[in-house]
Amino acid sequence: MPTLSSDVLALRDDIIALRRDLHQHPELAYAETRTAGKVVEFLNGAGLEVRTGVGGTGIIASTGRPGGRTVLLRVDLDGLPIQEQGDAPYASRVPGRMHACGHDGHVAMGAGAARVLAGRGLNGAVRVLFQPAEEGEGGAQAVVRDGGLEGVDLVLGIHLWNELPLGTLGVKPGPLMAAVDRLRIVVHGRGGHGGMPQRAADPVVAAAHVVTALQTLVSREVSPLQSAVVTVGSIHGGEAFNVIPDEVTLLGTIRSYDLELRRSMPDRIRRIASGISEGLGCRAVVEVDAGNPAVINDPLVAEIARRAATRVVGADKVVEPEPSMGGEDMAVYFEKAPGCFVFVGSANAARGLNQSHHSPRFDFDEDALAIGCEFLVQAAEEALRA
Ligand SMILES: [Zn+2]
Ligand SMILES: [Zn+2]
Asked: Beta-carbon neighbour count of residue 287 at 10 Å?
């Protein structure tokens, strides 16, 4: 059984109610205006200093006293362009929009923690950041540009995690989530009649070979002891069954941890895509957009998080999660201040609440919300104590 403070317990039902409200009204990146309004409403009267419009639709709620350290607790606001398939009474009411990553829960936990912390005598300052646009749209960069990290000594963030059972907290020093870069390859050929391929240069065949050859990057070029992913997630070309199109566009993602490896990937991809395409009479144009760096938890902040987590769920429920090749823009903050990103175990297989994040059937056990809220409170206090 987790140890919950009386002020967290007192808010538990309100936190769940806020999560369910947000779950029914998911909003996409930079459009989280209703969500932000609900946060402001929830925080109203708690004595927090609330700054809105941070990085677009973000909010910073501050409490505590200046002069000591400043700890930033970060949660994220946005939903995803997914049609929810679950049948919970609080399922999304917006077609094609869903909180399928659990950010509704993050907002609720962050708002609860802000209220609780405002009622405590803090030995420093705490900012709770409600960040817009985590899902690949640069929300963290927008917050940094707006000065959200100025004066911050240390950053803590949480993510509900269906890879871990309810009642656990996942704390790991060092590498946790991968750097994410976006890949776009356009294979240019020469379109023509599907029955007369000799008069065309077929970009569909060339693109197919490029996709296949890209698989050798990780399997043959990267050391088996290093981690990397190259995934082509989208192929578009052609409209008709009997026409060879002019071009085919491939979209993909590149994941890695090692900085040198990361920097080498665009040239390697260019070499393969261009070499293969030219061999087949086509031409490839490769663009790689640098995304978020890897999430590498600071060992000292991870130790603070581990101590706080132990107080909440007990030492035997504090687990070290496997690093993931998923990405998180939390990493952007770690370039400004040392930090730790912590997973809040939220799976309950017996209740069917163990679908993966971003699944149209994603949902989590709401008992995780009070645990995550308590963890945020304990971690902030621990960080100000340390
Ligand atoms: Zn996500
Ligand atoms: Zn997420």
From this structure: 12
